[in-house]
């Protein structure tokens, strides 16, 4: 699959199906978010979205955010994080770096500093280990602002973090006292 536009289109379609709307193509994710590759490809084809295993492999391998992963046996696929459907990714608690980052738009700052970061429709709050990623995330929502998360203090106070397979730090919420605006 050399057409970059098609790669992006397929990646977005897979994100929607594997993170948010599996029923859109008539599949069910298991409790950990997995679906068999053959079931996914058959369901996509039935909805007019023909995709070969080689094309799927290419999208998984080249996605710059590493959004998808295969099971150890290569027979199943899932999104690595970002679900709005209930799944348990089975990620163990992990100790984060002392500081993490969250990208948002400036128009959200007042509510964030009042309520903290909440997962909204997703299962978890997503945090980055670097400011570049956080800036890119924030830019998707408007003029980007990067917030610093005092992950060391959160950990010391009993908050749990998990690290997804694609390097995104996940937590249930970030109370406002652990947030500051990065200058």
TrEMBL record:
Record-linked InterPro entries: Ptrans_KptA/Tpt1, RNA_2'-PTrans_C, RNA_2'-PTrans_KptA, RNA_2'-PTrans_N
Enzyme Commission code(s) on record: 2.7.1.-
GO biological process: tRNA splicing, via endonucleolytic cleavage and ligation
Signal peptide: none
SUPFAM superfamilies: ADP-ribosylation (SSF56399)
Gene3D superfamilies in UniProt: 3.20.170.30, RNA 2'-phosphotransferase, Tpt1/KptA family, N-terminal domain
Keyword entries, A-Z: NAD, Transferase
GO molecular-function terms, A-Z: NAD+ poly-ADP-ribosyltransferase activity; tRNA 2'-phosphotransferase activity
Homology family: Belongs to the KptA/TPT1 family.
HAMAP family named in the record: KptA (MF_00299)
Role of this protein: Removes the 2'-phosphate from RNA via an intermediate in which the phosphate is ADP-ribosylated by NAD followed by a presumed transesterification to release the RNA and generate ADP-ribose 1''-2''-cyclic phosphate (APPR>P). May function as an ADP-ribosylase.
Protein name: Probable RNA 2'-phosphotransferase
Gene: kptA
